[in-house]
Structure formats: structure tokens, C-alpha cells
């Protein structure tokens, strides 16, 4: 199998997805610091973490290595040219499965503007149409109302509860799994999202 090339950039209107770069360090740290409390309840932690976390440069190198190997797609989310979050396709499985899962975070100051649904639609179309993946899933804590709205806006299929699925904020947490396959969006996820936002005719 030929692994699709990286880097990749995707865009629609004011939203642009691109690889994380070493020169993003100051902007990335500033956004993360401003949103530490907002993000803590939803972000993965390690149950056996020991030693210091990787440096920013190490994180960028690791992301790039995994992306070039075809195992992940780590995008920065830009809104009007400003770094406001990340969306990452991880756990890419090829062969007969052709599946992956998607995670994301967004600056609280721009949450609720449709940035994440648009970013997820862009990612889904790239995964289905360019990479030829078959299935994507998003795992969301039942308490995360904002992310549940993202799944609803995109019409993702609710596959039910996974008990104690991921280690989040220091404990094993339940998650609801939402998924979509390529056959469910023949028109494309971006087209589906655009259609859902059009005013309904009386």
C-alpha cells in the first residue's frame, strides 16, 4: 500500500487546517494556557504517567513522523489566520478495516461558532475521498454537551455507551461513540453540513 503524502492543508471559508509547526510554539502555548480549565475535563491522561511530558518540539516531531507513516493526521485549526485549536485523526488502520478515530479541542473564546463541525467535515471528506478510509468515529464523554452538539450537527450515528473507555482527567471515563461510514455521506460531509445550515423553506 502507498501511504498518502503529508503534509496536507484543508480549508473552507475562514477555517484552515494545517500541520503543527515548531514556530507555532508561542501561539500554541498561549491558547493552551488560556484554556487549561476549559479543556481539563475532556482531555486524555495517562494512568501510569511518569517523567516530564514531551517538549513542544518533540511533540511536533512525533506528529510529523506518525503522519508521514500514515498512522495519523495531526491538524492545527486556524480561524481567520489565528491558531484556535487542533483536530487529529488517530489510530488509522488500513487493510480490511480502513478506520480511524477523531479528536479535537477548541479555544473557548471561539467555541459555538461552527468551527469544529466545519473542521470535522473537512477531515471526514479528506479521509473518505482521498485516503479511502471507510469509517470514522468520535468518542465523547456524555457530560460534554458542546461535543454532543457537534455530533448532532453533522448527523453522526450514535453507537452507544462505552463504559470506562478512556482515561480522562485522572480517571477511567465513560464515552458515547459516534460514527460515520463513507456510504452514509455519498454527497460528502461538508455538503451535508452546509445543507443543514441552510434556512428551511416555508
Short description:
The chain is of the alpha+beta class and 202 residues long. The protein contains six helices and eight strands.
Features:
Aminopeptidase; 202 residues; alpha+beta; 8-stranded mixed sheet; globular
Share of helical residues:
25-40%
Query: Regions with pLDDT < 50 over 5+ consecutive residues?
Result: none
Domain module count:
1
And the CATH topology? Aminopeptidase
Query: What number is the mean pLDDT?
Result: 93
Assembly state of the chains shown: single chain
Give Rg in angstroms: 17 Å
- Secondary-structure element order, N to C: EEHHHEEEHEHEEH
Which architecture name does CATH use?
Answer: 3-Layer(aba) Sandwich
Structural class: alpha+beta
**First-residue to last-residue Cα separation:** 50 Å
Shape: globular
Question: Looking at this structure, what is the CATH superfamily?
Answer: Gcn5-related N-acetyltransferase (GNAT)
Q: Beta-strand level of the residues, as a percent range?
A: 25-35%
Using the coordinates above, name the CATH class: Alpha Beta
Would you give an account of this structure?
The protein has one domain (10-197): 3-Layer(aba) Sandwich (Aminopeptidase), CATH 3.40.630. Strand 3 and strand 4 form a beta hairpin. 31% of the residues lie in helices and 32% in strands. The model has no long low-confidence stretch (mean pLDDT 93). 29% of the residues are buried. The longest helix has 16 residues, at 115-130. It is globular. The protein has an 8-stranded mixed beta sheet, with helices on both faces. The protein is of the alpha+beta class and 202 residues long.
